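Hi all, posting the design record for the shared folder.

TITLE: backbone redesign
STEP: 1 of 1
STRUCTURE INPUT:
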C-alpha cells in the first residue's frame, strides 16, 4: 500500500499536514511506501523541482518530483527519530528556488 503525506510550499516556507509535524506510527508499521505530495504557490510554476531529505550530516539522493508534485520518501529517512525535508527548484528563466528545511519527527 502507498501512504501519502501532504506538504504545502509557499515561496520559501514548507508546511506538512501532520499533527505536530510527526508521522504517526501506524503510517509506518507495514513497511509501506510513503509518498510526499506537494502543493506549490505560483512562484514555483514551471520550475523543475526536487525534494531533499536529510538526517544529521547524511543527505539522501534528491528525489525528482513526478509531475512536479510527488516523490517517494527514502526509507532510510523514515528509520528512527527524525528527518529534514526541503524543496529546491529552478525556473525556465534560471531563477533558483529553495525552501527552508522542515523537521519531521518519525
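Okay, here is what came back for every position:
SEQUENCE:
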Amino acid at each position: 500500500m502507498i501512504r501519502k503525506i501532504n506538504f504545502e510550499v509557499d515561496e520559501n516556507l514548507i508546511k506538512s499536514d501532520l499533527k505536530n509535524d510527526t508521522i504517526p506510527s501506524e503510517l509506518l508499521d507495514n513497511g509501506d511506501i510513503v509518498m510526499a505530495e506537494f502543493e506549490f504557490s505560483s512562484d514555483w510554476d514551471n520550475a523543475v523541482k526536487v525534494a531533499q531529505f536529510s538526517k544529521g550530516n547524511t543527505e539522501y539522493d534528491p528525489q525528482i518530483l513526478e509531475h512536479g508534485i510527488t516523490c517517494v520518501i527514502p526509507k532510510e529517512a523514515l528509520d528512527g527519530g527524525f528527518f529534514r525535508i526541503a524543496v529546491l527548484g529552478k525556473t525556465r528563466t534560471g531563477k533558483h528556488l529553495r525552501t527552508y528545511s522542515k523537521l519531521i519527527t518519525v
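COMMENT: The two ends are 19 Å apart (CA to CA).
Let me know if anyone wants the other runs.
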